[in-house]
Amino acid sequence: MREPIRLDKRCVELFDCSRGEAVRYIEGGWVLVNSEVEERPNFKVQDQKVELAEGASSEPIKPVTLLFNLPEEFITDDSTVIKQLITPESHCEEDYSGIKILNRHFHGLKPVLPLQNGTTGLTVYSKDYKVERALLDHNRKKEEEYIIEFSDEYTHEALEQLSELAYSSDESQPEFKVSQQSEKKMRFVTKFAHPDQIETLCKQVGLMTVAIKRIRIGQVSMKKLPPGEWRYLSENTMF
What we know:
- It is a single chain.
- By secondary structure, the protein is of the alpha+beta class.
- The chain has three domains: about 5-50, Structural Genomics Hypothetical 15.5 Kd Protein In mrcA-pckA Intergenic Region, Chain A (Roll); about 65-140 and about 220-230, Alpha-Beta Plaits (2-Layer Sandwich), CATH 3.30.70; about 145-215, Alpha-L RNA-binding motif (Alpha-Beta Plaits, 2-Layer Sandwich).
- It is built from six helices and 14 strands.
- It has helices at about 5-15, 20-25, 80-85, 130-135, 155-165, 195-205, and strands at about 5, 30-35, 35, 45, 50, 65-70, 110, 120-125, 145-150, 175-180, 185-190, 210-215, 220, 230.
- Strands 6, 7, 8, 9, 10, 11, 12, 13 and 14 form a nine-stranded mixed sheet that branches. Strands 3-2-5 form a three-stranded antiparallel sheet.
- Strand 10 (about 175-180) and strand 11 (about 185-190) form a beta hairpin.
């Protein structure tokens, strides 16, 4: 029986590659140990069968961005709690990005453009500097779309009052526009809203919110992403 050896060292022996290439093969999910993917370079192997998957590449792993639909039962602004919900098991089946799930994708994720206070829906976690810059440095230009649900049916007058606030001279107010979705729900599109801005605006016209859900940021929407599940942002898509 062979002495235990690190997987990356065994790969160097088997595949005639450098140590760095071996690590990239492993962390990229291309190395199989007894036909099972193993992503830990320091994993010890002895007599197991070690092989490269078809199409293996030693290219560096590209940074990823994850879109997560925060469900109502987990209303929180604690990013640590939200990240604990983003696991391989909560991955949405309808993910057409073509990106292969890797364990490394779940480490070092940063929350980008946090939700309004007490809000659920579309959240963004990323390791991609370009995405972080697009949403954080230029967030005043990015539209956010919300669905607001009220405790009671609202009147046409209340909708008009909200619309009038959008054109007030108060520079502290964010740019926004509202439209009716149903008797108790309203669409709210805004740019650079403060953490409690939506709820505050609604209270000004006597409307009590019971649920606020973000459904779109810029050009990216939740579409059919179920509550409590996530999917990758496609590489050719930007907010």
